[in-house]
Design goal:
By secondary structure, this protein is mainly alpha-helical. It contains 23 helices and four strands.
Length: about 500
């Protein structure tokens, strides 16, 4: 290995260790969030079964049909880790590392420099969505879909190169896993079709026919899945979570999602991409007498990455809600496009500057400030403690059928703190996860002074929890809450 490549490898390992260490440190302090509690309850219900998960006979509460990405993911992790949320985060981190490996292999397939390909793969671990959107386990179905889609494309490319049938069927099987993780993976055959067009020779219609023949198993998987998703899944699951809007707002939605993928650096990345295009064009024009293979491979990679990103963006563009969890699924094609940009710029730099420039680009993608803020303001410990106290209190009050959470009163958390905690932890799903076999009525007592005391005093049959100003939870009222005897009356 050349000294420059060796230096880059050591630098990349050091950067990855720092980022992964920071993510693990945050994960050790975090816990479950709102939607997580629903699935932790759902997979522990007595009526849950694998058959109902894959072939539901009746409607369930949620609209999503993602039997592997949601139900299966929680079942597997709960069997391994139970209520230890850190294990779920490590699982997600390993899936992202595997996705990074697939991105690296795809980049090498298109002839990218070893350093550039490695940097493209590391994007999956260091980019902002990976570092900040993975602490809600319910978001991991997007990680699963990204991983399975990237592996399906990688193995299809291996099939195009080798012609071995086992790689074709491995790719097809991974596509089946991908769509069962998240339906956005159904667009993968279109990306693979574009990739296959460059492999076959002859006129475009002939190449298109050959590519379609290569992909018939993948197309069959997608058609069968979509037919069952639309016609075979009970109606309730077909309801949309969000309103679909096909209008000019799609442009702003697309920009919002790309902004999240690039960690708030979209304009900078676009400017660098334009610069790379200009530099590559001038560089290629000076090589007319030289074989054009490397440059043409770069064009192919850019087109495949752009098609992949565009197909994945389309379902999110019609939803007026750009979120970081969507960005998790968009990262693999974005990482390949970044690799194409870096590959175009690298030859124009002095050899001594190439490795440092790549490491700097990776470091700029990492959300250092957001990660440190997340580390310092983690709510996970408070959620975990609240859950443990709730479990103990409800076990001690087996006949109670209701819960009252008391806040925004003397000595207690204020209204904004209460709302924040209620949205993140004290949801109905949170209380259901404490005891999934008991129907609990949830009430929030928020008020002040005499009205507050009167409201709490009139509650006799519910188990009461008091949200303190430091966001800890207690079954006893704070000592400075005014007339403590009234608050303690049952």
């Amino acid at each position: 290995m050349r000294p420059a490549a060796r230096g880059f490898l050591l630098g990349a390992i050091a950067l990855a260790v720092v980022i992964v260490g920071l993510r693990l440190a945050i994960g050790a302090r975090e816990w479950f969030y709102g939607d997580d509690f629903f699935f932790l309850t759902w997979v522990r219900e007595a009526h849950w079964s694998w058959r109902e998960t894959f072939i539901p006979s009746s409607a369930r509460w949620i609209a999503a049909y993602r039997p592997l990405g949601l139900d299966g993911y929680y079942v597997a992790n709960f069997a391994l880790f139970g209520w230890n949320a850190f294990g779920y985060y490590v699982t997600g981190l390993l899936l992202q590392a595997l996705t990074g490996y697939a991105v690296f292999r795809i980049a090498r397939y298109y002839g990218l420099d070893l350093r550039v390909a490695l940097a493209s793969g590391l994007v999956m671990l260091v980019a902002k969505p990976s570092s900040t959107a993975t602490y809600e386990v319910a978001n991991h179905n997007y990680i699963c879909a990204a991983m399975a889609t990237a592996l399906a494309l990688l193995w299809f490319l291996d099939y195009l190169r080798s012609g071995r049938a086992r790689e074709r069927w491995a790719s097809c099987s991974m596509l089946a896993i991908a769509v069962l993780c998240n339906e956005i993976s159904a667009g993968m055959p279109f990306t693979a079709f574009v990739a296959a067009l460059f492999v076959h020779s002859g006129p475009l219609p002939a190449r298109a026919r050959k590519s379609a023949r290569d992909l018939w198993p993948h197309l069959a998987v997608v058609v069968l899945f979509l037919d069952f998703r639309v016609s075979g899944v009970p109606t309730r699951q077909l309801n949309w979570f969000y309103d679909v809007d096909v209008s000019l707002d799609m442009l702003s939605n697309t920009r919002g999602n790309l902004e999240l993928v690039m960690g708030g650096k979209l304009e900078f990345c676009a400017a660098v991409g334009l610069l790379a295009l200009v530099v590559w064009s001038r560089f290629a024009s000076h090589r007319r007498g030289v074989p054009f293979d490397a440059s043409s491979q770069l064009v192919q990679l850019a087109l495949v990455g752009a098609v992949w990103l565009g197909i994945m963006l389309l379902p999110f563009a019609v939803l007026a809600l750009p979120t970081a969890r969507f960005a998790l699924a968009l990262l693999p094609p974005a990482a390949l496009l970044l690799g194409a940009i870096w590959e175009a710029l690298l030859p124009r730099l002095r050899p001594a500057f190439r490795s440092p420039a790549l490491l700097l680009a990776l470091a700029l993608l990492a959300p250092w400030r957001e990660s440190l803020e997340h580390l310092n303001t983690s709510r996970g410990a408070a959620y975990r403690d609240a859950h443990e106290i709730a479990v103990q209190a409800l076990r001690a009050n087996t006949k109670s059928s209701c819960v009252t959470v008391v806040c925004n009163g003397p000595g207690l958390a204020n209204g904004s703190q209460c709302a924040l905690f209620r949205d993140g932890a004290f949801t109905t799903a949170f209380w259901s996860s404490v005891d999934p076999h008991r129907a609990l009525a949830i009430d929030y007592s928020e008020g002040g002074s005499e009205a507050f005391l009167e409201q709490v005093r009139n509650v006799h049959d519910c188990v009461r929890f008091y949200l303190q100003r430091d966001l800890t939870v207690s079954t006893e009222p704070p000592s400075n809450a005014g007339d403590a005897s009234l608050l303690s009356a049952r």
